[in-house]
Amino acid sequence: MSVKTVTSLTNATVKAVRALHMRKEREDSGLFLAEGLKIVIEAIDCGHAPKILMYGPDAADHPMLQKAAKACAAAGGEVIEVNREILEKVSRRDNPQAVVGVFRQVYTPLSAIVPRSADCWVALQAVRDPGNLGTIIRTADAAGAGGVILVGDCVDPYSVEGVRATMGSVFAVKIAKASVQEFLAWREEWPGSVVGTLLTATVDHKSADYVKPSLILMGNEQQGLPPELAAACDVNVKIPMRGRADSLNLSVATGIMIYTVTG
Question: What are the alphabetically sorted keywords of the record (predicted)?
Answer without folding.
Answer: Methyltransferase, Transferase
